[in-house]
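Board notes (copied after class):
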Amino acid sequence: MAKKIGILTAGGDCPGLNAAIRGVAKTAIVEYGMEVIGFSSGFKGLIEKDYMILDEKSVSGILTLGGTVLGTSREKPFKKVNPDDMEGDAKTQQIIDNYKDLGLDCLVCIGGNGTIKNAYKLSELGLHIIGIPKTIDNDVWGTDRTFGFDSAVAICTDAIDKLHTTGNSHKRIMVIEVMGHNAGWIALYAGIAGGGDVILLPEIEYDLNIIANYLADRHAKGKPVSIVVAAEGVKHGKKKSPGPYLAKKIQELTGIETRETVLGYIQRGGTPTATDRILATRYGRYAAELIATGIYNQMVAFKDNVIISIPLAETSGKLKIVEPDNKLIKSARALGVCFGDEGCRVGR
């Protein structure tokens, strides 16, 4: 059985990381008597051999904390500036050497798509790896849910609730931009939960004229406020975030005063919801159990309300997007929500 494992958190931070660290460490230490170390600042700490000993005391009291006690970074261990980049090769070799020098039996990599991809590459080099999916974007392929997502949706929903009251007072259209570069899960869930009138996703092409007609019709019927929830990845022909652009265009086309709010990094911060704490803890525990039974090179996942594992090779490099025929989209359309396409029904 494995005797010593390492843990790292990489990529963007999110609520629930500490719960996952705690879940892995406490299970490994208490149930299986393993030695556990945590690398500082993601793969950077692994490359530089910068780590700390994790024991029961060091992971006690971190369940409710946002962020990550290990720190994180976007260090890419396999990145090369060009094919002849010797530094990139040196980083990879340093990881392998440090893994062996520290006597690790397995490395637990907690992160999003980029981290899972790097974890898979490390497994191909002979390292024993377990991946744990985290991201507020909920776009890791192979799992129904990533921790961090529920907390982000709660933050965005609360913001939409607040925009309803100020927008209602001034009879404005309020545009709120939420995170989601390639997948619109946050916009979809928060938009529905917050009672958004228009929800714009990267996966669905929108027409500003359709949106403007829909919003103008609402205004003409005496609706004092309209809420537009847009994922940051919706296409708008600009390099900057879409929120200000959408607000400007909507006001020009409707003649209705429009304001935008870009939530930004507040979506990553704060204490995790109970749902994220539980999911992250379950992920951590299951990861330790896989290691104890000698099952490696897997990513833990949540499928049909059960914690399972899938090979890293199956999920690496894949993205889970919102499909246009998603049941939630169908439900929202039935309630009269506009997605900016031909399915948007004016007059409801």
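Comment from the instructor: The first strand starts at residue 4 and ends at 9. The chain has a mean pLDDT of 95.
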